[in-house]
Structure formats: structure tokens, C-alpha cells
Amino acid sequence: MTLDVHLFPCRADNYGFLIRDAATGVVAAVDTPDAARILEELEGLGWGRLDLILNTHWHPDHTEGNARLKADWACEIVGPEEVRKVAPLDRVVADGDVVMVGETRFEVTETPGHTLGHVVFHAPGDDLAFTGDTLFALGCGRLFEGTPEQMFDSLQRLKVWPDQTVIWCAHEYTASNARFTVSLDDRPEVAAHAEAIFAARARGEPTVPTTLGVEKRFNPFLTATDADQFAARRAAKDSFQG
């Protein structure tokens, strides 16, 4: 299978994603942080259609464009029930559901923590996943609604995927996450990884995507051994000034 993924920055630090199933030409947006930006990118790509929106959670910087994109393209909006609090939603998905983007199969995994209904979309046939605000490069989402135990369990669910899984996360937080990581972990390879991140950002390059293997090696929230250690690290990151 082949899925084309187009990443673009928008808002202050969000990434938007447009994806296209190469076999059928079906196009989807993963979250809708900025409808005007998404429409601009869609026109520039020349893909000529928008069939689906996949929402990971309800926060406005992930759903704000739903209504306009629905009005312009009559696309189907798919996501967790919580999206209905703030934006249009056509199809509710929950853990274990499948969403087809053309011939590309996405499996839905519930990952409560950042919000209670957060989901991620995993395409095992393409070794990639859109993790929203659950898993970031060297980080994880703040616990706005869920508990440390919930988020720890959610991350454990993602850790079982193959190391080569490409992780498309929704924000450019990696430099800040790297500074926190090196404050906890003095391994030389961690410092080298952080320096590569700082250099990429200095060149104006995105640090997304990452891979699950890299995150399992360096991400302090994936290397946490239990929920208590995870909770301590999450609390420390929340107050970190680096």
C-alpha cells in the first residue's frame, strides 16, 4: 500500500496533515487546525478533492476547521464522540473500529489522557500512525482531562507497534521536549539526538515525523517503567522552564 502524507505548519505550533490513498485518490485531512490553510495546501497539491476528516480529539486547534471544510467539500467527518462538543461529526469511532481511506486501512486505538476520548489512527499496512496529542517526539500530551494512569496505559498500547512505525504527531514541541529529556537522561546518545533536533529547528526544518523505535529509545514518557514514574515525569515537564 502507498499513502501520500503532506505535512504543513499552521497556527502557532500545530501541524496539519493531508493524506491521499495512492490506489484510489481518496483524500483525508487528519485534524483541522485551520480550514483556510488546509484549503490552500489542498489547492497547491492539486489533489482536487477532500473526502474525509479524521479527528483525534475535541480540542479546537484540532477541530476548528470541520464546519468550513464540510461546507466546501461535503466530506465525512470521523472521530470520537467528544468532538461533537465543539464541531460537526458524522461518524463516531471508538477502540477497535476501522476507517478506510480508499484502500488504506486505519485502526482506531483509544488513548485517554490528554482528553478522555482521544483516539489515534494507525495504518499497520503502511507502518504509520497519526497520534494527535497523545504521543509527541520526545514527549506526550498534557493531562487536561485524564489521569497519569490512563496516559501511561495509553502509551503502553502504542509501544507494542513495530519500531519502524512512523509517528506523525500534531505539534512542533520537540526542541522543548529535548531540553527536558537531557535534564533527565545523561546518556551521550541522548545528547546527540537532542543536538540534531536543535540543529534541524535552527534550519527551520520540522522534527516530525519520528519513529516509534526512536521514541522507545529516548522519549522519557515511553521509557517510564510504571505509572508512578510517568506521573512524576509529567509533573516535572509541566513546570519545566528549560
From TrEMBL:
UniProt-listed Pfam families: HAGH_C, Lactamase_B
Membership in a protein family: Belongs to the metallo-beta-lactamase superfamily. Glyoxalase II family.
GO MF entries: hydroxyacylglutathione hydrolase activity; metal ion binding
Cofactors demanded by this protein: Zn(2+)
Cofactor note (record): Binds 2 Zn(2+) ions per subunit.
Keyword set includes Cytoplasm: no
Domain Metallo-beta-lactamase: 13-171
NCBIfam families xrefs: GSH_gloB
Pathway where it operates: Secondary metabolite metabolism; methylglyoxal degradation; (R)-lactate from methylglyoxal: step 2/2
Binding site for Zn(2+) 2: 61-62, 133, 171
Species annotation: Brevundimonas vesicularis (Pseudomonas vesicularis)
Protein name: Hydroxyacylglutathione hydrolase
Physiological role: Thiolesterase that catalyzes the hydrolysis of S-D-lactoyl-glutathione to form glutathione and D-lactic acid.
EC numbers: 3.1.2.6
GO biological process: methylglyoxal catabolic process to D-lactate via S-lactoyl-glutathione
Record's catalysed reaction(s): an S-(2-hydroxyacyl)glutathione + H2O = a 2-hydroxy carboxylate + glutathione + H(+)
Top-level enzyme category: hydrolase
Subunit structure of this chain's protein: Monomer.
InterPro entries per UniProt: Clx_II_MBL, Glyoxalase_II_hydrolase, HAGH_C, Hydroxyacylglutathione_Hdrlase, Metallo-B-lactamas, RibonucZ/Hydroxyglut_hydro
UniProt keyword annotations, A-Z: Hydrolase, Metal-binding, Zinc
Superkingdom classification of source: Bacteria
Residue sites binding Zn(2+) 1 per the record: 57, 59, 114, 133
